[in-house]
Design a protein that fits this description.
The complex is a heterodimer. By secondary structure, chain A is of the alpha+beta class. Chain A is built from nine helices and 28 strands. In chain A, a hairpin with a 4-residue loop joins strand 19 and strand 20. The chains are: A alpha+beta, B mainly alpha.
Chain lengths: 577, 211
């Protein structure tokens, strides 16, 4: 109460006091609302942030070898629907190296599991980042063995009783679930002993990876194979089945494996293809196109000529004009050079070289995809599906990001930094089914017959025999043909050194290069057939792609004539990997 | 109208700069082609070409600018010297763009090296002028007036040789120092913001005026 204030003044004071109180109350309300408005989204965001659970286990119980590919088995779950990006990279402070990344959608109550093929390193780092920003990291130690790895996957009565041991090999005992689901992860091991019980416990992807490993001449001994297993493995082994062995006991498996390792034929077959890390054996097929270099050289020559002419012509100028010309013209030319770099882009090139034995069911291949850079930029290249199982950079020091698609279960793209004249090479290796069974007849007065002893027709190609390249006609199954018309293509060591025969369905120049590549690979005293591969039906194959299949053909040891033609006329289908 | 018909400075400098760039271009293209044919990485040749290009132009600035600039300043002005600097440095810019695209050096570093080269040119111009003045004024009483300018030219050439030797011996350190200084200036401008600084200056001027 205000002393000495009465009447209308008093009422006015009370009214003002009430107004102030109401304003304070209103202000408090507004502040509360504001606080709620500010705090509510934060609390809501905290409530909706997904709880991410990640567990990771390396295949083969974490054993691998330096420079090889292994596999990580990753299990993911989330409390709310979210999208997670996974990155796996070696945990090192050195230069950037290859990483594998993928993105996966998670739903609550539906854990996901995927197996990522990654390059082996002593410490791998898995990083999972959700769309909301939640980050989880896991360190995965890998045991890198300096000795060759022998994997013993024995279950049932064999487990724990006996262990396969070989000199200089490091033996790792595994269960069925420890075996990888990507065929490329088998690169970590040098020999595998597996029994029928373990084989029956494998899931579909594990079995497919195991068969792909066998097809790629992976050394393997199957113990106690029953009829079903024998039927499964029939014809599955590459290198004529000489690397896929069978034994009735663990002791016999050890003996068989030791004998296999001592046989140089197997070793040479397994390592016979060109080394994926060096391109020296690929020779002319790997020679980069000089198109970009030519354009840069031409542009520089034009610039120097034009500038010289301009300098000789502009000889009467004021100093300020000289300054403007000497700064302006080179600056404009530098801008033009930058624009020129954008015009130097060339399409990726793919070269596939495959080899097999006549009558064999699998051909092994090496492939190289080359991307020529034009300017400094981030480049993304799609990887052809059939080649994706073993995609890696040919140069181990090349930083590379491989995108793994969980739906397709394979690597779908590669990302890397390019620059002018930088040739980034991606290497692939593996095997594909093959149905080529050429059979040669005896030499009768300088004339030989060739027979398609297989069940599928083959397209026209070349037969490399006695230092000469002969045209090999397209033949249907069971059809004979007389080898005639010696062409002017010969071994470089034979005479001219310049084979010039063009393969059907292939441009002349690459055929020459393929012949140069093929001649040293024909076994002494033998022959070989060379076909161009039709890569047109393969998904994501670059525009400039060429593939070759070299099939070794044994010469007949006795003069037994070939059987007569027993089937339809020659077909002209082409081989497809 | 002050024409510099008698002064071959900028033209000669530009021709010299063009010849240097052309020589380095031929060497770079050749080594790159060899690297490509051998399956090697051409980035090393590019990095070497950038270094050689910088060192050659810096040496040319130190050696040639004295003679070219003094002749030009006899009939022209500081603009002529600046044009001579541009003539020695700028003709290689298109080559620098291409070589830098093929190298692994950061683009900002290459840009700073070019700016540093222009700074070196300015330093050479100023020091050349200072040496000339010092010779003319300091040794003037002891030299025949007819030979003063010849002696000054010789002193400038000697100074250029000494500067070239110093640049050659300290090119790495000098490049790093100049690059760091310019990079720091750039970072300062980017961090504090040029508009903010301008705004701050305007505010200071306004408050001073009001007070």
């Amino acid at each position: 109460m205000l002393p000495g204030v009465t009447g209308p003044r008093k009422r006015l004071c009370w009214a003002l006091r009430a107004l102030v109180l109401q304003c304070c109350t209103l202000r408090a309300l507004v502040l509360q609302c504001f606080a709620l408005q500010v705090l509510l989204p934060a609390s809501t965001a905290q409530a909706t942030a997904p709880q991410l659970a990640v567990s990771v286990a390396p295949a083969l119980k974490g054993w691998s070898r330096p420079g090889k590919t292994t596999e990580l088995d990753i299990r993911l779950s989330a409390s709310t629907p979210t999208r997670v990006r996974l990155d796996v990279a070696p945990d090192s402070s050195g230069p950037p190296v290859s990483t594998v990344y993928t993105q996966i959608d998670l739903q609550p109550g539906r854990p996901q599991r995927l197996q990522l093929p990654v390059g082996a390193a002593a410490n791998l780092q898995l990083r999972a980042v959700t769309a909301e920003g939640t980050v989880l990291e896991r360190a995965v130690p890998i045991s890198l063995s300096e000795s060759p790895l022998l994997v013993s996957a024995l279950a049932g009565v064999l487990a724990g009783h006996q262990t396969v041991r070989l000199d200089a090999f490091h033996t790792v005992a595994l269960t069925a679930d420890d075996l990888p689901r990507n065929a490329s992860a088998y690169a970590s091991i040098n020999a595998l002993v597996v029994d029928a019980a373990t084989l029956s416990a494998l899931d579909t992807r594990q079995l497919a990876a195991l068969l792909a490993h066998a097809a790629a001449c992976g050394r393997m001994v199957v113990v106690n194979a029953d009829a079903a297993v024998q039927k499964l493995l029939e014809g599955a082994g590459g290198c004529g089945g000489r690397a896929l062995l069978q034994a009735s006991s663990v002791a016999q498996a050890q003996v068989v494996l030791a004998a296999s390792l001592a046989a140089p034929v197997i070793a040479s077959l397994a390592n016979g293809l060109p080394n994926a890390m060096t391109l020296s054996e690929l020779g002319p097929l790997a020679r980069p196109s000089p198109q970009g270099w030519n354009r840069v050289a031409l542009a520089l020559a034009l610039y120097f000529a034009a500038t010289l002419a301009a300098l000789l012509w502009l000889h009467t100028l004021r100093a300020t004009a000289w300054l403007a010309v000497l700064l302006g013209l080179p600056a404009l030319a530098a801008g033009a050079a930058w624009a020129l770099l954008g015009l130097l882009h060339t399409a990726p090139e793919l070269v596939v070289w495959s080899e097999g034995d006549a009558g064999g069911e699998q051909a092994r291949y090496r492939a190289w995809q080359r991307v020529a850079g034009a300017r400094r930029e981030h480049t993304r290249v799609a990887i052809p599906g059939p080649l994706a199982t073993s995609a890696q950079a040919c140069d181990r020091n090349q930083a590379l990001g491989l995108e793994f698609d969980p739906a397709q279960g394979r690597v779908t793209a590669a990302e890397f930094e390019t620059r002018l004249f930088r040739q980034v090479l991606l290497c692939f290796s593996g095997s594909f089914p093959m149905a080529r069974a050429p059979q040669l007849g005896p030499d009768v007065n300088g004339v030989r017959q060739v027979r398609n002893a297989g069940l599928a027709p083959w397209p026209a190609g070349l037969l490399l025999l006695d230092g000469r390249a002969l045209p090999l006609p397209a033949l249907g199954p069971g059809v004979n043909a007389v080898l005639a018309g010696v062409v002017n293509a010969s071994s470089p060591s034979a005479s001219t050194g310049a084979p010039a025969t063009a393969l059907p369905h292939a441009p002349a120049a690459p055929a020459d290069q393929a012949l140069q590549m093929a001649w040293p690979r024909v076994r002494p005293g033998g022959a070989a057939a060379l076909w161009a591969l039709d890569l047109g039906g393969v998904a994501a194959v670059p525009e400039h792609a060429q593939g070759w299949l070299l099939v070794s053909v044994p010469l007949p040891e006795v003069s037994v004539p070939l059987p007569e033609t027993s089937a339809a006329p020659p077909a002209s289908t082409r081989s497809t990997p | 109208m002050n024409r510099v018909n008698a002064s071959p400075g900028p033209q000669q400098a530009a021709l010299s700069g063009l010849a240097l760039a052309a020589a380095v271009a031929v060497w770079w293209l050749g080594s790159t082609r060899l690297a490509l044919d051998q399956g090697a990485d051409p980035a090393r040749a590019a990095a070497q070409a950038l270094q050689v290009l910088w060192a050659l132009r810096a040496l040319a600035l130190a050696l040639l600018l004295g003679a070219l600039g003094s002749v030009a300043r006899g009939a022209g002005s500081w603009w002529t010297g600046a044009a001579a600097v541009a003539g020695l440095v700028a003709p290689a810019w298109p080559l620098v763009v291409l070589v830098a695209s093929a190298s692994t050096l950061p683009g900002l570093q290459v840009l700073l090296m070019e700016v540093a080269l222009l700074v070196v040119g300015g330093v050479v111009l100023v020091t050349d002028h200072a040496v000339r003045l010092a010779v003319l004024r300091g040794l003037g009483p002891f030299i025949n007036p007819a030979d003063r300018h010849a002696v000054a030219d010789a002193a400038c050439t000697l100074w250029g040789v000494l500067l070239a030797l110093g640049l050659w011996r300290t090119q790495d350190a000098l490049g790093q120092v100049l690059g760091q200084v310019l990079a720091q200036m750039l970072v300062q401008v980017l961090d504090h913001g040029l508009p903010t600084q301008i705004g701050h200056g305007l505010w200071q001027a306004l408050t001073t005026r009001i007070s």
